[in-house]
Amino acid sequence: MEEYKNETEFLKDYNPDEYEKLSMTTDILLVSVSSKKQTNYRKTSKKMMSILLVKRDEYPYKDMWCLPGGFLNPKTETLGDCAKRVLKKETNLSDIYLEQLYTFSELDRDPRMRIVSTSYIALVDKNKLTENINEKASWFDITLLEEDEKKVDIVLDNEEETISFTIKKTLKEKTTDRYKYTTIKNTKIAFDHPIVILSGIERLKNKINYTDIVFNMMPKYFTLGELQQVYEVIQNKKLLDPAFRRIIADKVEKTDKVQTGEGHRPSALFKYKK
């Protein structure tokens, strides 16, 4: 191995073509929690968690659904820049919560070439979407069916199409409760995006226990009942009222506003205590 006196000498001989090439992408898991329409106005609106998917119009995986994503421009973008560009293209939004999730680098995750993807999770209140989303994109309500600790069945529905897939969970580290995810049933979601989706939902489920992240999906004013429903939808379980009130006691403050016109007694409105 040749020795160099300094970095300048090394760079003179450096040949980048000697190294393997790969491409980088970012994929965005955009999550919202909103009310599902009720035919009976006396019933409280049911909250559903939704994610945004885009229908592919070219190969590979033509006519299948995937998360919004795009290739990194290595000369002009950081990964964060790329994620913001993708989000702006699909939703016309540029000022919403965005957090890096995981990097996915399985050898066979894309049939075209070696592609490593860094995923991001973005949170939004759907009511802030004042512009139309990409015509190829659609919101899907998401339901997680967890009958045991070894697998998760996920159902996505946009009222025109229902998609389902199954993820196997294998415990990797008992001390940290970390799992490896493997897709065992899937016909309509492209790439390894079923795993990205579950990974993001699990991250969100954990973070609402110790952060204020949930308020990125809430309107400015809300009832405690609405906020509790959002917690329950994300955690996929019913919460006891006293326990929930303790969780949010220091996070919200009561306003002088009330919610009316819902077919039941007016409810006090709260807001996030920043």
Please, could you describe this protein's structure?
The chain is an alpha+beta fold and about 270 residues long. It contains five helices and twelve strands. The longest helix is centred in the C-terminal third of the chain and has 15 residues, at about 195-205. The radius of gyration is 22 Å and the shape is globular.
SSE inventory with pairings:
Blueprint lengths: L6 H7 L9 E14 L9 E10 L9 E2 L2 E3 L7 H13 L5 E8 L10 E9 L13 E12 L2 E7 L4 E12 L4 E8 L7 H15 L16 H12 L5 H8 L3 E8 L7 E6 L2
Parallel strand pairs: 1-6
Antiparallel strand pairs: 1-2, 1-4, 2-3, 2-7, 5-6, 7-8, 8-9, 9-10, 11-12
In short:
The protein is an alpha+beta fold and 274 residues long.
CATH architecture of the largest domain: Alpha-Beta Complex
Characterize the main sheet. Answer: 10 strands, mixed
**Sheet/helix structural class:** alpha+beta
Shape: globular
Average the pLDDT over all residues and give the rounded result: 88
User: What order do the SSEs take from the amino end to the carboxyl end, as H and E?
Assistant: HEEEEHEEEEEEHHHEE
Radius of gyration: 22 Å
Please, how many helices?
A: 5
What is the CATH superfamily label of the largest domain? Nucleoside Triphosphate Pyrophosphohydrolase
Measured distance between first and last alpha carbons: 58 Å
Uncertain parts = 38-42
- Which range does the strand content fall in? 35-45%
Fraction in helix: 10-25%
CATH class of the largest domain: Alpha Beta
Question: How many E-type strands?
Answer: 12
CATH topology name of the largest domain: Nucleoside Triphosphate Pyrophosphohydrolase
Number of domains: 2
